[in-house]
Amino acid sequence: MDELNRKSPEEFKRSEKTTVIAVLENIRSAYNVGSVFRTSDAFLLEGIYLTGYTARPPHKEIKKTALGAEDTVEWQYFTNAKEAIAHLKSIGYTVYAVEQVKDSLSLEQIKFETEKKIAVVFGNEVTGVEQETIMECDGCIEIPQLGMKHSLNIATAAGVVLWEIIRTRMKENLMS
Q1: Engineered SS bond to 69: which of 3, 19, 38, 98, CB 3.0-4.6 Å?
Q2: pLDDT digits (tens, 9 = 90+) for 22-40
Q3: Closest Cα to residue 131, out of 161, 107, 100, 154?
Q4: Which residues, other chains included, contact 135 with Cβ-Cβ below 8 Å and sequence gap of 6+?
Q5: pLDDT tens by residue, 83-112
Q6: Largest Cα–Cα distance of the chain, in whole Å?
């Protein structure tokens, strides 16, 4: 592990985090929740907000896919996404839903500024982000898809969107 330059759990908790929060709305699969914890750890996200009936740690299926990230990534629970979004906006976050809707922004066209606090809402595996939740958000992000299918598993969608946010911030930091 030393050669891989991995942070210990203590080093992770002390590390400066990226001002990005993943919001999970009514995620059915605890395995998907665990995967988002692991991705959030990989990208040093500030945290995860779990809403509705989304599984919460401690949970054996989260533990199985998170591989310890459920112990390092900060998380909070809200009874619904509307509460989580209201809280996020009160502390200066711009909130995007990841959903294919009229006027959604294509992921590759958004400039995620380093200093901007961003929260991204990921919805249920079948029904997506609820319409009421979309209406509370500042905008919607759409992942470009070229094949027959026009949806991704939530864990995959989270990896794609969160990487793009982190990648563009890293690129911006290198150029400044």
Answers
A1: 38
A2: 999 999 999 999 999 999 9
A3: 100
A4: none
A5: 999 999 999 999 999 999 999 999 998 888
A6: 48
